[in-house]
Design brief:
The structure holds 2 protein chains of 2 kinds. Chain A is mainly α. Chain A contains 14 helices and no strands. The longest helix of chain A has 34 residues. By secondary structure, chain B is mostly helical. The longest helix of chain B has 33 residues. Classes of the chains: A mainly alpha, B mainly alpha. Chain B: Keywords: Cell membrane, Membrane, Transmembrane, Transmembrane helix, Transport.
Chain lengths: 308, 302
Amino acid sequence: MNTVLTELAPSAAPPITQKTPAKVRKGSGFWFVVPFLIAFALFLLWPIVSGLWMSLTNQSLTGSGTGFTGLSNYAEALGDAAVWQSLWNTAVFTIATAAPLVVLSFVMAYLVYVGLPGQWLWRMSFFTPYLLPVSVVAALWQWMFQPGFGLINSILTQLGFAEIGFLDQQGVAMFSIVLVTIWWTVGFNFLLYLSALQNIPDHVFEAAQLDGAGPWRRLVSIIVPMVNKTTVMIVMLQILASLKVFEQIYLLTSGGPRGSTRSVLEYIYDVGFSGYRLGYASAISYLFFALIVVVAVVQLRIMNRKEH
Amino acid sequence: MSTQTKIRASRAPKATRAQNQRTSALTIGTSKGWTGGAITALILLALMWVLPILWGVTTSLKSEKDAAGPPLSAPSEGWTLDAYIQVLTKGEIPRWMFNSFFVAVAVTVLTVAISALAAYGFSRTEFRGRKWLFALTIASIMVPGQILIVPLFQQMNSMRLTDTFAGIILPQIVAPMMVFIMKNFFDTIPKELEEAARIDGAGRMRIFMTIIVPLSRPILMAVSIFVFIGAWNNFLWPFIVTNNPDLLTLPVGLATVKNAYGVQYAQSMASAILAALPLMVVFALFQRQIVKGFATSGMGGQ
């Protein structure tokens, strides 16, 4: 559509008569922003406000009980062992995924950067999982994790090991979800690192080689510092993304066994849409939001200190 | 974020590639042990990332009986496209695929249109409250949309938009991050280009359509692809807001209509492959723009 309009517009232009640039009024720019602002107000600002209000009521999904209850939802959430467990699980997931997702993506990008020809093939290998819808990822790995004829377990039994209940064994299930998440999402960080590496100017390497720096020395003293900015950004984005984990958990274990993989968002979903307690679910959302803001602010502080 | 360096990078893909090849040769040339190790590690990692997908593909090409058999042995009944034929003719995959396509295209067109207009307004025009509104937009990037599902669902309920396409689409079109990315790009376009058109008497809208849009084609393309990938793969919101099986998008349909095919593993793998296929094609076609787009914006997904 844009093409059509751009091609039509010049020929439709009136003959040059007015030479008043003042035709563009000062205030007219506002109208460009209006469609976005309407959507922004309706689908972002309003839910933020109404959710805050909702968290102060005992509203349920069935419509009953909309009375104001003050901070009692928040008080209940702070005393709810399931809330604390889901926070703990989220923290464990975040640490267990963020570290490998940063380190591994750098290793992958570095290997592709210095490695064999055929970059697109390696790039495609590492990035394709990121393009898969989460339900495809879940179906694939559920099938890989199957007892009996699942790929991993059948290899394990052929090698003489016992089968592992990847998704239904407490303590193992979280590990499996971390594994799936790393496989699924590492491609995104990988691409960011790859483009950062490709931006390192050539003369830096030439200078290093003249100085007789070996590959290891070059990696540690030149490459890692030169992609530092990218690393800081990836760490920030990754931590915030990992804190919001829901879908793969919901699809693979629904938070089980015994709540051992239940993340905060999974719990919010359980409370709000399975337990019908919208008010309480909102309160947990806002506690979690406050926590995310704290994490983000701390990260920004650390990042700023590093840059100066 | 150093948008400047990134935009520069996106404008010089050829130089970057040539430069990269030179550096590779340079690095590899020094130590054989190091190079061998790097290549081995690369191949092993790539195998680990590709094997699950390959296994899904091979399973989808087996008969149901073979699919439930030992995973590492060759199929006794030979390779077959049966699962795909079944899924495409009997299942609901085609309908879900159409829904996904419709939703993703609508979300992409609306998001890019309103975000580009807003970005232009913020970048090139003056009006009262502009800085303040832009600051509000930027601040909202911090809000994790997922925590809004409860109030948003309630709101859709009261607007009678649950179980409608509008209900699936509209909440997805607010993308402050995209406004931010495009505004940064528009800021780099020289103002002189507009002056000439303005002297010719062109209004703001015409300047936007005839000068800004054509100059910004790469970034508009990259943003469109991002939004499309995001909308195509979005699970949580469509999952919350729809119950009607006729409106399910592909990711939701696949995940929630459990046992749609019983324990027919070949068919469930065939559905998964079919669901993944459109984006693979998009990626293969637009690889350069996507990689560039990622580099330019550095935005988060998941």
